[in-house]
Specification:
The complex is a heterotrimer. By secondary structure, chain A is of the alpha+beta class. Chain A has helices at residues 51-59, 101-105, 107-111, 116-129, 145-158, 175-192, 203-209, 227-232, 237-242, 359-362, and strands at 11-18, 28-35, 40-44, 66-71, 74-75, 86-89, 163-167, 196-200, 212-217, 220-225, 247-253, 259-261, 265-267, 278-283, 289-290, 298-307, 311-318, 321-328, 340-344, 350-352. In chain A, helix 4 (116-129) packs across helix 5 (145-158). Chain B has one domain: MetI-like (MetI-like fold, Orthogonal Bundle). Chain B contains twelve helices and no strands. The radius of gyration of chain B is 24 Å and the shape is globular. Chain C has one domain (58-263): MetI-like fold. Classes of the chains: A alpha+beta, B mainly alpha, C mainly alpha. At the B-C interface, helix 1, helix 3, helix 4, helix 5 and helix 7 of B face helix 1, helix 3, helix 4, helix 5 and helix 6 of C. Chain C: One of its GO terms (biological process) is transmembrane transport. Chain C: One of its GO terms (cellular component) is plasma membrane. Chain C: Residues 65-253 form the ABC transmembrane type-1 domain.
Chain lengths: 368, 283, 265
């Protein structure tokens, strides 16, 4: 789980489990993590992995079968929705069509009985913060997608939420707008010091915006860590293939100079720390280099070349295994289909996955 | 490339629509025109005359009947719509596996005979009916009274008969509303009543209006229930029309009454559309 | 939590009571139909099926049943044929005035039945069709046609266009593609259209009251005339049978395309 530090956990989820009536398996299965105040967490996973259900459980929108939720030391598992003080930006935005922009933003204040000067001041602040000046009296139907998104965010922020939740908030935006809005949301979250949870299925989005990332699959938490942790030290095949592109090699440690790779043979790669049994090793395609070198690991035949401008992607058959290799455009001599090439990499380019996962999990999720 | 009907010459399309148009002209348009024509028929001679209308509007009894009709219609709206709203809300938001069955159960009475349901109310409200027996048994009444005759019984039965129409029109509006709006309101701190008052109710207004209009127009044109349950003491336009055609055999006058009813129909539909437009432009 | 549960229970109780109110007349009629006394009262003195037996031996009711089934069947078939043909033109056609025609085909739905009934009576009388089966069938076409047209139209609108195109490209003639692809795909809507039309005709009383009643008597009319003068368990049993007969199409419709969509919710 997350590294324990001196600062206490602000949000703590433990053992969250939910199985919908009539469902064959649990949508969220024994998920636990903690988050510090002011951090941004992204819940990342393919559709149907349970990330939105987890978010809705934290928000109180979906009942929790078992598990505990603490926010700022307070037990919140049974707290009714309206008393949670959580802000949510829905994927559909869920803005009230019968209210103006200003009345949407002030909704949370109105129902709390905050009126008059204070309400007006807070709405005005948010309107200018969200660049909505001049739109206060517009109807929701008169706004563009980007404007609606900002109103939804302003409405969630107006109640000064303990936790801000964003459910795929960029999904309904124009592709060109997404990067800008993402950067804006991150800047705002850091400036206001808000603890936030952001659900997405887009790994670029997840890694670029977050302090912590929780990767989910089939209702389970696969890994929880910083974006860099996830990329460089994925715990299993699923995380490795979901975050970035990857080659997997099943291998046995022979001695400090050699490993035996399944389907390839003996590779002269020195791991100082050995392991028992067969383990899965990960090597990212851009860490494999082509061409002659003293450190040559193995030889292979180029089966396919894809040229995408910035780089060439080769499929190289080595023994019974096909490896993906990426070379920068300006890097080395381009190879052709049918060429025999030397591949080389070092032990530091590889990471040993902690646990081999069941086949059902690893198949069907090709790296993106 | 498009094949099939679209590519056929247009005279074939005309042929396809012709039987329908013919059927509607014979069974719908012509009877209405003939009705209007009959209402203008003079007592003697061949020219058209407004004497049936003159008679209608000069007789204060018929003004009273029109007032009565509208009053009963409004009464039905005021009772039916508040009863239909909770059921529609329940059906729209229920997560229960029984939801489909319960929806069908709420709508199915609409497809059973009005005569039979009116008869059911006669049994419930009759001298030896359920209500009287219960009240006498409980000692509230010394002896049974007549409940099944008159405006009260008529309105009770009409409310029950029109309830499915109310439910279905509110339900179809509610199911177009995003349930996330209510969740968003709750998360923003609104309690159940606040969610209802500030979000659900204002957003339901168009559905409630459609239901009101439907119940109203069906109530003012219903015949069977006032006829059977009115006990001859409920005079509405529909019963007057029936009496004029079958007992008095004054067809021009029955025609004039029908056209009057139709005119009220039109007025209320137009009014409804004006209000709905205003509501929608405001929200 | 406790408060929450109380609110929930009160809410469900309210819904339950409204349902009870909605179904009360049908439930009561069912209970009374097992009574044996000649006059109407509640609760029943005893439970027996004797009044059902009486209904089934009452020539008046049997004749009315036959008439109702005949009129319902005939008007539903005619309405379905005419409505389906019109639906194709209205959904697929490209001709001036299509929009107004669509509106025109729905307009009888908005017409108060009593006004239509008076008009029909005045029209059928000079034609000598008052109190005849033909007259009733014609009259019921006008009230059922909007429903058959609308239900079949929605079916056609949902049809996947590429299905027919695939049929044509693979060598089916227009007629073959109509019979083997379009009609089977429309089957749920055609059946629903027929059943809805049948039910509306079968339960209709207002128009029948004006244009029939002596020689041609439908079931609702027979019940209406009976309860005007007498109320005994026999009419309750008849009512139960009529409701049961309506229930079969209702269940089929619910299974096929669901009741709410069929009646237009």
């Amino acid at each position: 789980m997350a590294e324990t530090n001196s600062t206490p956990a602000y949000l703590s989820v433990s053992g969250f489990t939910r199985q919908f009536p009539g469902a064959e398996r649990r949508s969220v299965d024994d998920v636990s993590f903690t988050l510090k105040r002011g951090q941004m967490l992204t819940l990342l996973g393919p559709s149907g992995c349970g990330k939105t259900t987890l978010l809705r459980m934290i928000a109180g929108l979906t009942p929790v079968d078992s598990g505990q939720l603490h926010v700022a030391g307070r037990q919140m598992t049974e707290t009714p929705l309206h008393a949670r003080n959580m802000g949510m930006v829905f994927q559909s935005y869920a803005l009230f069509p019968h209210l103006s922009v200003a009345r949407n933003i002030s909704f949370g204040l109105d129902v709390r009985g905050i009126k008059g000067e204070e309400s007006r001041r807070r709405v005005a602040e948010l309107v200018s913060l969200m660049h909505l000046t001049g739109l206060e009296n517009r109807r929701i139907t008169e706004l563009s997608g980007g404007q609606r998104q900002r109103v939804a965010l302003a409405r969630a922020l107006a109640i000064e939420p303990d936790i801000l939740m964003l459910d795929e908030p960029l999904a309904n935006l124009d592709i060109r707008l997404r990067d800008t809005v993402r950067t804006e949301i991150r800047a705002l979250q850091q400036r206001l010091g808000i603890t936030a949870i952001f659900v997405t299925h887009d790994q670029d989005e997840a890694l670029s915006i977050a302090d912590q990332v929780a990767v989910m699959s089939e209702g389970r938490l696969q890994q929880f860590g910083t974006p860099a942790d996830l990329y460089t030290r994925p715990t299993n095949r699923f995380v490795a293939s979901f975050v970035g592109r990857s080659n997997f090699i099943e291998a046995v440690w022979v001695d400090s100079k050699r490993i035996h790779a399944e389907g390839i043979g003996t590779l002269f790669i020195g791991f100082s720390e050995g392991w028992k049994d067969r383990r899965t090793l990960l090597i990212r395609p851009h860490r494999i280099r082509l061409g002659n070198s003293l450190e040559t690991c193995c030889q292979g035949v180029v089966e396919n070349v894809v040229y995408t401008g910035e780089r060439r992607t080769y499929l190289v058959r080595v023994g019974y295994v096909t490896l993906t290799v990426e070379q920068q455009e300006d890097q080395g001599q381009p190879a052709q289909t049918g060429d025999i090439v030397d591949l080389h990499w070092q032990a530091s380019d590889m990471s040993v996955l902690q646990e081999p996962l069941s086949d059902a999990l690893t198949s069907g999720h090709p790296s993106s | 490339m498009r094949v099939s009907v679209r590519k056929q010459p247009s005279w074939l399309q005309a042929l396809l629509i012709l039987p329908g148009v013919a059927a509607l002209v014979v069974t719908f348009v012509f009877p209405l025109l003939w009705l209007a024509r009959t209402s203008l028929q003079p007592t003697t001679g061949h020219t058209l005359s407004l004497h049936a209308y003159v008679r209608l509007f000069e007789d204060s009894f018929y003004w009273w009947v029109i007032g009565r009709t509208i009053f009963i219609g409004l009464l039905c709206v005021v009772i039916t719509v508040p009863l239909a709203f909770p059921v529609a809300l329940f059906l729209a938001r229920s997560q229960s596996g029984w939801r489909g069955t319960l929806t069908a159960l709420a709508i199915a009475p609409l497809l059973t005979s009005t005569v039979i349901r009116t008869y059911g109310w006669m049994v419930i409200l009759g001298r030896h009916g359920l209500i009287n027996t219960t009240l006498v048994w409980a000692g509230i009444l010394a002896q049974p009274t007549r409940l099944d005759n008159g405006p009260f019984a008529t309105v009770v039965a009409l409310v029950e008969i029109l309830l499915p129409y109310g439910i279905i029109s509110i339900l179809s509006h509610l199911s177009r509303l995003d349930a996330e709006l209510e969740q968003a309101a709750s998360l923003l701190g609104a309690r159940r009543l606040q969610v209802f008052w500030h979000v659900l109710l204002p957003l339901s207004v168009p559905g409630l209006m459609t239901a009101s209009l439907l119940v109203f127009v069906l109530a003012i044109s219903s015949l069977v229930t006032p006829q059977l349950m009115g006990g001859g003491r409920v005079f509405v336009l529909a019963t007057e029309i029936f009496n004029q055609t079958t007992i008095s055999l004054d067809w021009p006058f029955a025609g004039a009454l029908s056209i009057t009813l139709l005119a009220f129909f039109g007025i209320f539909v137009a009014l409804y559309q004006r209000i709905l437009q205003r509501v929608e432009s405001q929200s | 939590m406790k408060h929450d549960r109380t609110v929930r229970m009160a809410w469900h109780l309210l819904i339950g009571l409204i349902y009870l109110f909605l179904l009360a007349p049908l439930i009561i009629v069912l209970i009374v139909s097992f009574d044996t006394r000649p006059y109407l009262s509640f609760p029943p003195a005893s439970f027996s099926l004797i009044s059902y037996a009486r209904v089934l031996h009452n020539p008046l009711f049997l004749q009315a049943g036959k008439t109702s089934l005949l009129i319902g069947g005939c008007s539903a078939v005619l309405s379905l044929i005419v409505g389906t043909s019109a639906a194709f033109a209205l959904v697929r056609g490209h001709f001036p005035g299509r929009q107004s025609l669509q509106w025109f085909f729905l307009s009888p739905m908005l017409m108060p039945h009593i006004v239509l009934a008076v008009g029909l009576m005045m029209t059928l009388q000079p034609l000598g069709l008052l109190d005849t089966l033909t007259g009733l069938i014609l009259a019921h076409i006008s009230i059922t046609l909007p429903y058959t047209t609308r239900i079949v139209s929605s079916g056609i609108a949902q049809l996947d266009r590429t299905l027919e195109e695939a049929a044509r490209i693979h060598g089916a003639s227009p007629w073959q593609s109509f019979c083997c692809v379009i009609l089977p795909a429309l089957r749920p809507h055609l059946i629903t259209g027929f059943l809805i039309a049948f039910l509306f005709s079968f339960d209709e009383a207002v128009i029948a009251l004006f244009i029939a009643g002596h020689r041609a008597v439908t079931l609702p009319l027979a019940i209406y005339q009976y309860i005007q003068f007498r109320t005994d368990p026999q009419v309750a049993s008849l009512s139960v049978l009529v409701v049961l007969l309506s229930l079969v199409p209702i269940i089929i419709i619910e299974r096929l395309i669901n009741l709410r969509r069929a009646v237009g919710g």
